[in-house]
What we know:
This protein has helices at residues 2-26, 29-57, 71-106, 126-132, 144-147, 151-159, 198-234, 241-272, 284-298, 320-337, 383-388, 395-405; strands at residues 111-115, 121-124, 166-169, 177-185, 189-196, 280-283, 305-309, 315-318, 343-351, 354-361, 409-415, 419-426, 431-432. It has 448 residues and is of the alpha+beta class. It folds into 4 domains: 2-102, no CATH class; 108-196, PAS domain (Beta-Lactamase), CATH 3.30.450.20; 200-271, Orthogonal Bundle (Helix Hairpins); 278-432, Histidine kinase-like ATPase, C-terminal domain (Heat Shock Protein 90). The strands form 3 sheets. A 5-stranded antiparallel sheet has the order 2-1-5-4-3, sandwiched between helices. Helix 1 (2-26) packs antiparallel against helix 2 (29-57), helix 7 (198-234) runs antiparallel to helix 8 and helix 10 packs antiparallel against helix 12 (395-405). The longest helix has 37 residues, at 198-234. Adenosine-5'-diphosphate binds next to helix 10 and helix 12.
Amino acid sequence: MFSNWHDAIKRLLISFFALLLTGWLIGEPALVVLAGTLGYLVYHLRQLRRLYNWLRDTDFSEPSPPPESKGIWGYIFDGIYLLQRRERQALLELKSIIDKAQESTAALELAVVMINNRGGLEWWNPAAEQLIGLQTPKDKNQLVINLIREPAFIDYFNKAKFNRPLKLSSPSNPTNMLEFQITTFGEGERLMLVRDISQLHRLEMMRKDFVGNVSHELRTPITVITGYLETMLDDKQNLPARWIKPIEQMAQQSHRMENIIRDLLTLSQLETRASSKQQSAIQLCSLLREVKQDAEQVFADKAHIITLDCADDIYVNGNLSELYSAISNLVLNAAKYTQAHGSIVLRVEKGTRGLLIAVSDNGPGIAPHHIPRLTERFYRVDESRSADTGGTGLGLAIVKHVLARHNGKLEISSQPGKGSQFTCLLPVERIVEPSGLAPITPTPGTQG
Length: 448
Ligand code: ADP
């Protein structure tokens, strides 16, 4: 570069002095220098025009060689040509990477959709056409929420909490079940992966139906057996002495079986029925008072001190029988596992995280390693303790399901030897302002 530039300057200076000398010799130095400068200008203008024409006619994806030129202009032409070729090479490499990525996603059964930061569709693979009915190229730049109009999807997309996938029936074929998973990248762009989980969903439904049907079918025989055993025990004095103990044990076990079947049926209904259809404004305090009375009656012999800390004007929107069942499970558990004369506190509180319903006791507590597993079906901390108390191991699973159906969750904290606290957290949207409401308060027999 420098030698080219120095040569050009050198040549310019030599030409200038040659012109000056010629001009001086013929007695017109100014005229000769002016003519020389004009010639120099014309030369550079011509080169500029060649450069302009070449750049104008060049196809950047297939650059043509530059016009032949010498000196500094030759260097400029060659430099630009080299840059064009390098850029083209880089473009070809990038294109081949994109082609490979597109080819590999085209072969996938998984739908891959790229969404820009305005929510418009940018690119998708063929599986997306099949699974969610996208049309190429018609749907390009269309808003994804205009194409998948299911309210659950719109809510999921707008809330942008993508830590969990969304299950939804396919917009193009409602018999198929799809799982949507979205991840964000770049500046607000999103990558949406959709897979067909119809087979898995069908198996899951079969499992749920099976548990529901088996529980339903077992209910009548067990009720009959329990009934006969109780009738026999009512007439204890006429029973042979050696039969009394076995029959008592049979009655106890068939009661347990009845409880297990009842809880299994409740769980199966919670899993299979559409999310809480019968919603109403529930006055929480009345519900808790009701549950408190139940616990006091059922565990009268343990004479617990149960206190209720709740403002009367707290209403929550939900399914009464489901919430009753969840809260009564927690309160009955507290009463079941807390020693006689122990204390149990039921507290309702509005907080920044939503509505809080806490059931605390000063019972035996639970070791920390059990806590994450407590809501699993049939998980018990202590088999013998639960069997003694007639527990089914399904109570907390029911609580978890009910709360999930109310967009809430269960939090458990406990210290062995000191007591436990089970807290139901319901979102702020569930809180109903008492003004202008005709609340439904729980009446006996509404619990399920
Ligand atoms: P169960 O029918 O056995 O009570 P749950 O699902 O209701 O089943 O509870 C699971 C386990 O959690 C129980 O077996 C018990 O060991 C423990 N648990 C539940 N509530 C309490 C409590 N208030 N205090 C101590 N342990 C509890």
